[in-house]
Amino acid sequence: MFQSFDNVIDPSVGSARCAALRRELARRGLDGFLIPRADAHQGEYVPPSDARLSWLTGFAGSAGMAVVLADEAAIFVDGRYTIQVREQVDTAVFRPMHLIETPPSEWLAGKLQPGQKLGYDPMLHTVNGAKRLAEACARAGAELVAVDGNPLDAVWEDRPEPPLGQVRVHGQEFAGEAAEDKIARMAADVRRAGGDAFVLTQPDSIAWLFNIRGSDVSHTPLPLSFAVLPREGRPQIFIDGRKLTNASRDHLEALADIAEPDGLTGALSALGSSGATVLVDPDWAGDALASAVLAAGGKVKHGADPVTKAKAVKNPAEIAGARAAHLRDGAAFARFLCWLDGAAAAGGLDEIAVAERLEVFRAETGKLKEISFDSISAAGPNAAICHYRVDRGSNLPIPDNSLFLIDSGAQYEDGTTDITRTVAVGEVPQDQKRHFTLVLKGHIAIATARFPVGTSGAQIDALARIALWKAGLDFDHGTGHGVGSYLSVHEGPQRIAKTGHAPLEPGMIVSNEPGYYRDGSHGIRIENLELVTPPAAIEGGERAMLGFEPLTLAPIDRRAVVAEMLSAEERAWFDAYHARVLRELGPLVDETTRAWLEAATAPL
């Protein structure tokens, strides 16, 4: 199994570990220290050797930061984790704070005293992040101090070794473009931006650029590495040579100069010494990297990672791969839903059993490389924790007459999937059906949206919420995130969210996943992945409009729908989507699943 259900979170360790860190800080003459969730690549996915925030506090979410001062400590999380953080962290040691409502910089400005020194690891904070923190310290009369050697690492006695996942070549039949051509395109962007070189810090950007995949973190085929892309000439890739097979080394040597990761700072210093202008993305690059260039006499220019947008707009081969992956995954998911209906009615199921069985169905495709994240298999009140992760301690039986939420995904060599369905088990209470239908209305509003070129996700996010808002309800996460091509299940720059300001472009893939969560009772989310389609004329209109094509193919549980709450247009979409699900999945499943699918996709 790709997913483990062992409970590795222990809030009781927070007190002793925080005390050990404070002793180390005092030894170094520091009055406090910052512990972010991120590693040196600033991404969402970190290996166990870099899971510092989790080790110190017990918090296992994908975003957050802790601040440890001499007599006070706090942990900052966003709205996704306000319930989870209180269950995983000793709140007598770390006070939970809302990351958006009270950012760490504001909290620090009110807590630090004049003359105090707050330490930070400059590889673990971005250029912009470090700037905000330095400004907060200055407002308090304190100083932000870059440490040489992370003090938390000094007290982490059982720290795991860094990963050595094998690097593989990602075939051009899946990539759709030769790495040489990608490098030439991105080098041209470096020239247009007025730089001599760009520092690539995100492993998914490097994987896409060089047509490689790795296995350094769970569920996402990332080769942890850095790269320097010059405006002319050969790039440099900084990666542990022990990860390379003969094939992947030959592939990379044809494209770039290979060096060990500890050579990155020296390479940046050499660029600085030559007077080069080095481009860095201030929202992703570690502050230490920009400092290395500046300290050697070079110039740093801020600019967006050129690979991020290029990677987000899928080429024809990647789009074909995404459709094939979703068709395969949809058939496996239909078999799973058919099984779940029967098994849930018989009783005795729990959250872990469901997650394990779903993985088996995907594995039986013969194409599964990994799951794309730990499945959120959530019954009753656990579904109200929108990023819930089941373990052997939290595992609940699936009760009759309730809603059950399963959010899951798969990694196939031709595409990455992510799907959420909320399933009726028995006769669902009427108020939960009402909430389900309000969420469905938001999902349909996004799925049927037409919008002009240049529209961002922020501009359409409200469509997913209007029905909920009218009922005095909302959800505290974005409506959608970008998805990679056999890469990260969370990919930028595109998002459907209040903060999603990147324009949506044809070829981008984005999730459509409104939800509703009632603490202690139930949670609902309905998620499809959508492909942004090219501008097309609308009869009687004056402008061609972009739209969405659903990639995900799976029934949405009609038993939880209050049909009278849907408009005629919404019912038409629902029935047409189900007709397509049956038409495309029916030939791919067994006779039993086909009969179940016919009933599950019947018109409302």
The computed structural class is: alpha+beta
Count the beta strands. 27
Query: How does CATH name the architecture of the largest domain?
Result: Alpha-Beta Complex
Low-confidence stretches: none
Please report which band the strand proportion falls in: under 5%, 5-15%, 15-25%, 25-35%, 35-45% or over 45%.
15-25%
Structure, described:
- By secondary structure, the chain is α+β, with helices and mostly antiparallel strands.
- It contains 20 helices and 27 strands.
- β3 (73-77), α3 (82-88) and β4 form a beta-alpha-beta unit.
- α4 (104-111) runs parallel beside α5 (127-139), α11 runs parallel beside α12 (287-295) and α14 (316-346) crosses α20 (591-600).
- The protein is globular, with a radius of gyration of 25 Å.
- Residues 545-604 form the Peptidase M24 C-terminal domain.
- One of its GO terms (cellular component) is cytoplasm.
- This is Xaa-Pro aminopeptidase.
Question: How would you summarize the topology of this molecule?
Answer:
Elements: H1 14-27, E1 32-36, H2 52-57, E2 65-69, E3 73-77, H3 82-88, E4 95-98, H4 104-111, E5 117-120, H5 127-139, E6 143-146, H6 151-155, E7 168-169, H7 172-175, H8 179-192, E8 197-200, H9 203-210, E9 212-213, E10 226-230, E11 236-238, H10 246-253, E12 257-259, H11 264-273, E13 277-280, H12 287-295, E14 299-302, H13 306-312, H14 316-346, H15 351-363, E15 368-371, E16 376-379, E17 402-408, E18 410-412, E19 415-416, E20 419-425, H16 430-447, H17 457-460, H18 466-470, E21 480-482, E22 491-496, E23 509-512, E24 515-518, E25 522-525, E26 528-536, E27 545-550, H19 568-585, H20 591-600
Parallel strand pairs: 1-5, 3-4, 5-6, 8-13, 11-12, 13-14
Antiparallel strand pairs: 1-2, 2-3, 7-9, 8-10, 10-11, 15-18, 16-17, 17-20, 18-19, 21-22, 23-26, 24-25, 26-27
